[in-house]
Amino acid sequence: MIEYLVEENRALREQMGHRRLSHHAEVKISENFPLECTFIMLLTPSCERQCIYDLLPNRIHARNWRFSMPNLSKRRMHLLLGVLTVATALTGGLYAQRGGQTAATQPSGPRPSTAPPLVPVRLNVDGNFRIAPPYAPDPAFSEKPNVAKGRVMRFTMNSAESKLFPTAPVGGGRGARAGGDAPAGPPQHQTFERQVAVYIPPGYIPNAPAPFIVVQDGQGYISDAPVTDRAFMPPMLDNLIQEKRIPPIVAVFVAPGPGGQRTIEYDTVSDRYTNFIETEVLPRITRDYQVAFTTDPEGRATFGVSSGAAAALTMAWLHPNLYHRVVSYSGTFVALQRNVTAPNGAWDFHQTFIPNSERKPLRIWLHVSENDLGATSPAEQMRNWVIANNRMTEVLKAKGYPYQFVFSEAAGHVDQRVQLQTMPEAFEWVWKGYTPSGK
Q1: Second label for 110, Cα 20 to 30 Å away, from 240, 353, 358, 405?
Q2: Domain for residue 381, yes or no?
């Protein structure tokens, strides 16, 4: 069964004779295999919410609503079939939001002579870099003989035991609509199980305070089988630690809640998610696996892609006493979850938070792709990932932050090829200067 879960984005409402609204949708191919996309709905009194006007790759921000196939006209059925055709082609969008993206075909032909000059990434230099295809995986992702291997321990957290995230919205949204703008009833919620894993580096002494990194969308970065075409972290960490390019860090891989719970946890600029990590996830690991985490913020890092990157920055920004190091791929520094703290969501990081604050002791590595989400959207809609990340670099530079920014040509949102090429150096750069404090 295929269902469409949509939510009206009022910020993008336009008056064009008919009401033209931007919606967000999640195409559910199966319960465990969502494909995220955005489409524009052209609403008229006759077709209500059933005419698909356009389809663009994007991300989930959903409210429960379904197309009823028997009620579709022939023309609408053709439009729906068109969506399904594109959906099949965009199956890789799953990885864009859940920890990666399927590799795209390398572009053919020479790079245009009018293109800006490339700036290769250099480990000992801060600032802006520009890379282009062909992208090549870093050898650090390949398992190597005679390299000591860390252990990966997995467990499940039942949300019913959580004080901070006890439930998730049913159907991926915040309550269904019934024809009008008002919700049909109070939001429906359900308990859920969250997958967590922890990488323990080789030679770790139980209960010794360890430097560590929290990986959002963590389920996308671990695998039981050796694979070289995905950016799985354990073999990379084994190799980087063996080569002394990074300290012997623990990595905590945390999956988000299901469906629309992900944007609630990741895109909301608040300390709720940080408190969840600090008071529920890390203590569980310490209790069950005798892994102690350093309290020195210099030894604490966060990693994320897309909305997970927004969560990673929020953790460090609101709690620089806890986290100093951030890695961000295709960061969702746009207006998704608005609240009193952040009226424009994570867009406020580059619009007000960073420009209007004293410099914090953060070290930030960030990336965006040429064909990232909303790349052609106007800035005033606050939905353009390319503009958002470029503005992030401008304000970070103006404030004197240590940062590296990688712009990848001919690449998409959370592009797997780019991660495979750049992630080892990103980890090496973000951990530069770390000295164990013993606490």
Answers
A1: 405
A2: yes
How far apart are alpha carbons 306 and 98 in whole angstroms? Answer: 9
* Distance in angstroms (rounded) separating the CA atoms of residues 212 and 22: 40
Q: pTM of the predicted model, to two decimals?
A: 0.77
Identify whether residues 148 and 282 lie together within a single domain: yes
What local confidence, expressed as pLDDT, does residue 180 receive? 41
Burial class (CB in 10 A: 0-12, 13-18, 19+), 147: middle
Determine the distance from the C-alpha atom of residue 427 to the mean position of all C-alpha atoms in its chain, rounded to a whole number.
Answer: 17
Q: What is the DSSP string of 284-348?
A: HHHHHH--EE---GGGEEEEEETHHHHHHHHHHHH-TTT--EEEEES---SSSS--SS-TTGGGH
Is the same domain home to 313 and 213? yes
- The answer, yes or no, to whether the previous bond of 134 is cis (omega within 30 of 0) is yes
- The answer to whether 321 touches 297, Cβ cutoff 8 Å, is yes
Which whole number is the average pLDDT over 250-267?
97
Q: How many separate domains does the chain show?
A: 2
Both 85 and 183 in one domain: the answer is no
Among 68, 91, 114, the domain-final residue is 91
Return the number of other C-beta atoms located less than 10 Å from residue 320's C-beta: 13
**What would the pLDDT profile of 336-383 be if each residue is shown by its tens digit?**
999 999 999 999 999 999 999 999 999 999 999 999 999 999 999 999
For residue 253, what are the domain limits? 127-430
Judged by DSSP in three states, 126 sits in coil
Q: Give me the mean pLDDT over the 305-310 stretch.
A: 98
C-alpha span between 48 and 41 (Å, rounded):
9
Structure token pair of residue 410 = 């001919």
Confidence of residue 49 (pLDDT cuts 50, 70, 90): very low
